[in-house]
Write a structure and sequence with these properties.
Layout lengths: L13 E2 L9 E2 L25 H7 L2 H24 L5 E2 L6 H12 L8 E2 L2 H30 L5 E3 L3 E6 L2 E10 L5 E15 L5 E7 L6 E5 L2 E7 L11 H6 L3 E10 L4 E10 L3 E3 L1 E3 L3 E3 L5 E3 L7 E3 L3
Parallel strand pairs: 6-14
Antiparallel strand pairs: 1-2, 3-4, 5-7, 6-7, 7-11, 8-9, 8-10, 8-12, 12-13, 15-18, 16-17
């Protein structure tokens, strides 16, 4: 089944607990286009600057462009101040002009080539040499990071806004659907669904447990349009005898991970999603989105991709 990628309605970032004294659980997996709050890590140093390459790859595009632009301007400003410390070191530059020194630095760092201004003494030539080397190394690293950001394969997979639990072939069945937003195919697609919830052990210890759900079909050799994922809730299911209230009380979350090979990139791609208790609808069904026209062609209505409807009584 498939439909249009309708923007999801605003949703709370926290799932409130219904147990007195129990803290609300944060969503473990962020949804597409939304960032889950990061956990607070105490007792360890900030690791980001030890892994600058990874940090730059994860930065949002706007922040990445701002960081690169700001670093470029700041670097040229610093070298401009160094040039100004040597009066007369730049030939044909106005005495004490920061603008002239700055643009001379830009020409040096970018290896554009000098016009009117040029180095005038040994000190300025040494600074110019150091800046040219700095620019060479910096641009090489920046170009590599930019290429990595734009060349890495990404998945464009959409998931239904809600999961539903409805009778199917005599058993209550958990269902949700996913679709490939691109007009190509994902080969050897695999999907896994994990149930995460708070549980109390026999000795009374509370812990966050994760249990895999058995799916009716967890693999698809070719995933091109849509895929309805189903889990039968029988006696072997972690959801057996669960109720809407019990899911909320235990801060239940369904974590979905899909992987496969994009036929365009010929590289592995990954997508993930999650459903919290409030996003699992009981005794409802996913609206059918596939039909045929008079010529026998399949029609997929993405405009109703996220719609559900109550089951007839």
């Amino acid at each position: 089944m498939v439909e249009i990628d309708t923007p999801p309605p605003p949703r709370k970032k926290k799932t409130k607990s219904h147990n007195p004294g129990q803290p609300a659980m944060l969503r473990q997996v962020g949804r597409a286009g939304k960032h889950r709050p990061k956990p607070i890590r105490r007792g360890r140093s900030m690791p980001n600057w030890r892994d600058v390459y990874h940090l730059f790859l994860r930065l949002p595009t706007a922040l990445f462009v701002l960081f690169i632009s700001g670093g470029y301007l700041l670097g040229n400003a610093i070298f401009a101040l160094v040039y100004l410390s040597d009066p007369g070191g730049i030939l044909n530059a106005r005495p004490g002009s920061f603008a002239d020194a700055f643009f001379f630095s830009v020409e040096t760092m970018s290896t554009i080539g000098y016009g009117v201004m040029s180095p005038g003494d040994l000190f300025t030539n040494c600074v110019m040499t150091a800046e040219a080397l700095t620019g060479l190394l910096t641009f090489a690293l920046a170009a590599g990071i930019i290429f990595s950001r734009f060349s890495r394969p990404t998945a464009r997979v959409m998931f239904s806004e809600y999961a539903v639990i409805m009778p199917y072939e005599g058993f209550p069945t958990l269902m949700f659907r996913t679709a490939n937003e691109r007009a190509n195919q994902i080969l050897e697609a695999n999907i896994r669904v994990t149930l995460a919830r708070n549980e109390v052990s026999i000795d009374g210890s509370r812990m966050r447990r994760q249990r895999d759900l058995n799916l009716v079909r967890s693999q698809s050799s070719i995933f091109s349009i849509s895929w309805t994922v189903m889990h039968v809730i029988d006696e072997s299911s972690p959801l057996y005898e669960a109720t809407p209230q019990s899911l909320k009380d235990n801060n239940t979350e369904l974590v979905v991970v899909l992987d496969g090979i994009d036929e365009t990139y010929s590289q592995p791609i990954y997508a993930r999603h999650s459903f919290v208790a409030e996003e699992i609808r009981w005794n409802e069904r996913l609206v059918d989105i596939i039909s045929q026209d008079e010529r026998g062609r399949f029609i997929v209505d993405y405009r109703r991709f996220h719609d559900t409807e109550k089951l007839p009584q």
